[in-house]
Amino acid sequence: MRDLVREALRMRPDRIVVGEARGAEVVELLGAMNTGHDGGAGTVHANSPSEVPARLEALAALGGLSRGALHSQLAAAVHVVLHMARDAGGRRRLTEIGAVQRGADGVQVRAVWRADGWTGERELLAAMLRPRGVEPPW
Question: Model's pTM, two decimal places?
Fold first, then answer.
């Protein structure tokens, strides 16, 4: 994974997309997302958006990345977390949107939207969108 990310970066991509991170390769995922490119994406398995930082801590430890370094890289690279789940019919559905926030104790993911509608935290998402010229959908 590390070699693939390095070779991709040498090709001067517009976007960096790294598939599922299941282990120490989360270090490469975050490294790629922190290279100054205009956007990126990656996938990781977690029980909920709020548990993504803890899941990434565990995976980053496998790659030798400290908790502080992980939270610094995560806060710099990731702004939104989308949570998908299978419904009763086996189809994948978006169930939650979380906004990434740096706090005194590291990064937290706050729910801004759930399947039943926008939460009281939706202004976190608006604060990310407006400087980019995007008006929130509410």
Answer: 0.88
